[in-house]
Design goal:
It is a single chain. The chain has a two-stranded antiparallel sheet with strand order 1-2. α1 packs across α3 and α2 packs across α3. Helix content is 48%, strand content 8%. It is mainly α and 154 residues long. The chain contains five helices and two strands.
Length: 154
């Protein structure tokens, strides 16, 4: 019976060690992936570093941030739609994406794209101002005061 007890204890120990090793590997891989994702959120690198190509995209009123991110990924402007959604969520442009047609480049970072597609319509469609010469300032004419003559009426 001692042999059976020793074999059972050894198998139990081996199983525990394997389970602990699997948990350690799982946690390590999860932490590594979380770190890499977090780094990409703040590193913000463009798809192509030099040159880049310009792509025209259209954003409509009914598109969510996820829809926009999927479209940008399909057109090759970003590498990861989930990453873009998180970057938009953490940016100063959160919730300010304006519908319209935009020219974006593969050399732009996600923050640069967000800055372009979040421009309020008043700024993006500025009316040209008329430039005319300023009107000359006209000084009002001041009449000189007339002093009464001394020794006049008595």
């Amino acid at each position: 019976m001692k042999a059976g007890y020793l074999i059972g204890a050894a198998v139990e120990t081996i199983v525990k060690v394997v389970i602990v090793a699997a948990v350690v590997v799982f946690v390590f891989r999860g932490a590594t992936q979380a770190y890499e994702f977090g780094y990409k959120v703040f590193a913000d690198e463009p798809v192509s570093i030099s040159g880049g190509r310009t792509i025209t995209v259209g954003i409509s009123d009914n598109m969510s941030t996820n829809d926009i991110a999927q479209m940008l990924e399909e057109k090759g402007l970003i590498e990861d739609a989930r990453l873009f959604v998180v970057q938009e969520l953490l940016s100063a442009y959160h919730g300010e994406i304006t519908p319209g047609i935009y020219d974006l480049s593969t050399a732009m970072t996600a923050q640069e794209m967000l800055a372009i597609i979040s421009v309020p319509e008043e700024e993006s469609e500025e009316e040209p101002r008329e430039t005319s010469a300023p009107e000359p300032e006209v000084e009002p004419e001041i009449e000189p005061e007339v002093e009464p003559e001394a020794g006049g009426e008595s």
